[in-house]
Amino acid sequence: MGSSPSSSSVVFAVLFLVFNAAVLCHGGKTSSFVRKVEKTVDMPLDSDVFRVPPGYNAPQQVHITQGDHAGKAVIVSWVTANEPGSKKVIYWSENSEHKEEAEGKVYTYEFYNYKSGYIHHCTIRNLEFNTKYYYVVGVGHTERTFWFTTPPAVGPDVPYTFGLIGDLGQSYDSNITVTHYENNPTKGQAVLFVGDLSYADNYPNHDNVRWDTWGRFVERSAAYQPWIWTAGNHEIDFVPEIGETIPFKPYTNRYQVPYRASQTYGKYTPQYKWLEQELPKVNRSETPWLIVLMHSPWYNSYNYHYMEGETMRVMYEAWFVKYKVDVVFAGHVHAYERSERVSNIAYNIVNGKCVPVRDQTAPVYITIGDGGNLEGLATNMTYPQPEYSAYREASFGHAIFDIKNRTHAFYGWHRNQDGYAVEADTMWFSNRYWHPG
Ligand SMILES: *[C@@H]1O[C@H](CO)[C@@H](O)[C@H](O)[C@H]1NC(C)=O
Ligand SMILES: *[C@@H]1O[C@H](CO)[C@@H](O)[C@H](O)[C@H]1NC(C)=O
Ligand SMILES: *[C@@H]1O[C@H](CO)[C@@H](O)[C@H](O)[C@H]1NC(C)=O
Ligand SMILES: *[C@@H]1O[C@H](CO)[C@@H](O)[C@H](O)[C@H]1NC(C)=O
Ligand SMILES: [Fe+2]
Q1: Nearest CA to ligand 2 atom 11
Q2: Which residue among 110, 196, 287, 315 is least enclosed by CB atoms within 10 Å?
Q3: Does residue 392's CB lie within 6 angstroms of at least one atom of ligand 4?
Q4: What are the residue boundaries of the Purple acid phosphatase C-terminal domain, all occurrences included (predicted)?
Q5: Per-position b or e across 96-123, b if 16+ CB within 10 A of its CB
Q6: pLDDT band with cut points at 50, 70 and 90 for residue 265
Q7: For 288-299, what is each residue's pLDDT tens digit?
């Protein structure tokens, strides 16, 4: 959608190495897989996954995200229903008896006729790398204990595994996507989420109760590993007809991130200036892999949101090529698609060079908006399949980006109808900085 989300509509993650002598191109495959045709339906309010945890003022909707640039801080968030309760998080590393505490802040907001619970955000800092921590929230009322493992210190050959989920929503299919992610034998250590979380805005007056149910639904993963957020159009919640004129109000109250949002989008805006300064700062000797997340895809051959990413592509694509971005993940289109390495940056108004061309210095573009939300699958594709499109399929699923070292990463897309270990589309990535070719 082009609106700029919380810490960004563009997010980097950094990591390692690779090369690949194999031919990357599948020559443009439109999968013939026969997917389910039933309607995608939201889970009812009394579903098991939406259950409120028992006990007075018990913390619910617990989730964590990375709390600083290096990975030594975590933001712990939760909601209490009855009263604010303690703002404390008590935490300790598995190697230590010594318990530490941190104190956070409580937020509430109103949305039309809805009043939120007490939304807690607490940043815990100075953590050791690569260490398992336990943490307790709900101190003094109903205590609940969770755990997470911090990422390793940055370095050129540190393996790390990301899950990729987009446009998740809270349907039965969304639940299957999360279940497949949890049961994937290649265990994701953090989720890169490409936007569109709860789809509460599809309910009358954007019924924010569906933001709460979504928070309870994803707790089983998001309380134990960081989910790195990108905002999508379903986070905007701008409804002047009912007096709701602050964009992203529910989202920003519920999903805090460590850096300020740029708020604007377009040439010369804060987002533009931020990205212009940020890209050259990425030190590929420390963090070999450069990954960008955005909501609306630039290279999309479905008949949905067609060319919506175009204004952003025109602004930023040349930078992505120049700074050797490895891969760009997007959502928005409720299907799966992977591109060849292509760019379309030669056009200068007079030279007529305005088609995507194969470009080994360019990123791969992956649309992973197939989390399973109630709007259903995007099944209508453009024909013929464009040259730049390597693989496309309208099925729900998730992906894993598994960084092995500075030159290699293994990528696999999993569809929900298959067994947990089955990959329906795979690619060895060779790092654009360390092993272009
Ligand atoms: C969601 O998935 C979990 C894990 O497979 C399962 O236990 C639960 O019953 C499912 N709930 C619904 C409403 O589908
Ligand atoms: C990049 O990181 C390497 C390894 O830490 C360091 O030696 C180098 O000076 C850094 N480069 C810049 C431009 O900061
Ligand atoms: C697919 O999309 C095209 C372009 O928007 C439209 O003309 C066509 O009717 C659609 N087909 C179906 C089956 O919806
Ligand atoms: C990087 O990982 C790939 C894939 O596992 C492996 O083939 C390669 O030897 C590794 N490179 C180094 C320098 O370890
Ligand atoms: Fe979307």
Answers
A1: 283
A2: 110
A3: no
A4: 362-419
A5: eeeebbbebebbeeebeebebbbbbbbb
A6: confident
A7: 999 999 999 999
